[in-house]
Design goal:
With 320 residues, this protein is an alpha/beta fold. The protein contains twelve helices and nine strands.
């Protein structure tokens, strides 16, 4: 219910600040394509498809999701940057969009110049879980172990630039440790190896490990956002556990090529706000453990620009 109220209030507040939309016969008059740089079935894919369904209903046109995987999301990003600036090609992007400018310095697409943000969808914290046989029960104990065993304490990631990878890098930076990242194709493989003892820890998406935490198969040490998570109320945040200012969440939003006419942006932003306020979208957010980001277009652009700068400053760690 809190998520529902937050979305509804945010949608009304943002919509009241926009100019009147263009006439319905001006835009859109044909299907809109939403590109996604991630595979099917993951949280970003689920949200993209839920949003697309809502937009189809709001706009009276088909909104088609296309998975363009590869190059850490850069294939989808470059396709959107190269599309006509007419509002018919959108991108659902997440953290890697901001990280890739550092990971791939020769990549021709730059945020703010070629790609701009349209609207946020939401964000979610991860949770640091460890196998019980590691015999640590607090972040302090885990940090001490990681410092004492450089390159020996391993943590699962689901790809370079993923939230699980970035959280590990941020942890190392503040803890003064040097953990060993182990890459997996997806969360299912990471969870299997963590439960089997092949890897020590994982900054996991919360829904994927709630069952294992409840069963005592994994130990939850801390969550990575600024506030505690409703589904894990007794688990402290990293900031509460001696890591001040720690905030490493998976965020998701809608992007487009720079230069789309303002009147078309007004139409799509209003449609996104109404779709976000729908019950179907609220259910999709709740199931993925994602809460809304209360930002308008300019605020979300500033947020993503800050993320680009943040990870540029951590370039040495990212490129290892």
């Amino acid at each position: 219910m809190k998520i529902a109220a937050a979305i509804a209030c945010q949608a009304v507040a943002i919509a009241l600040t926009w100019p009147a939309p263009a006439r319905a016969d001006e835009y859109p008059t044909r299907p809109i394509h939403v590109l996604l740089g991630f595979g099917s079935g993951g949280p970003t894919d689920v949200l993209a498809r839920s949003l697309a369904n809502g937009l189809s209903a709001e706009l009276g046109q088909n909104v088609v999701v296309e998975n363009r995987t590869g190059a850490s999301g850069n294939i989808a990003t470059q396709a959107v940057a190269g599309a006509d600036p007419d509002g018919y090609t959108l991108l659902v992007g997440a953290n890697p969009l901001a990280v890739n400018e550092t990971l791939f310095p020769d990549f021709p697409v730059k945020f703010g110049r070629d790609i701009v943000a349209v609207a946020p969808i939401g964000a979610t914290a991860n949770v640091l879980v460890v196998r019980p046989s590691l015999k640590v029960r607090t972040i302090g104990e885990f940090a001490a172990l990681a410092r004492a065993r450089a390159d020996a304490v391993s943590y699962a990631t689901v790809g370079v630039g993923s939230s699980s990878h970035l959280a590990g890098l941020a942890f190392d930076r503040q803890a003064g440790s040097k953990m060993l990242p182990v890459g997996y194709r997806g969360g299912g493989e990471a969870l299997k190896d963590l439960l089997g003892g092949q890897v020590d820890a994982w900054f996991a998406t919360i829904p994927s490990v709630l069952g294992a935490i409840a069963a005592g198969e994994l130990v939850a040490l801390a969550t990575t956002g600024p506030q505690r998570v409703a589904s894990l109320p007794t688990v402290p945040t990293m900031a509460e556990s001696g890591f001040p200012g720690f905030d490493m969440r998976l965020w998701v939003g809608v992007f487009e090529r720079a230069g789309v006419p303002p009147e078309r942006n007004s139409v799509i932003e209003r449609a996104i706000a109404r779709a976000m306020a729908s019950r179907n979208m609220q259910v999709a957010l709740e199931r993925q453990g994602i809460t809304p980001l209360p930002m308008n277009r300019s605020e979300f652009n500033a947020f993503v620009a800050g993320e680009v700068t943040r990870w540029r400053e951590m370039a040495p760690a990212l490129k290892k």
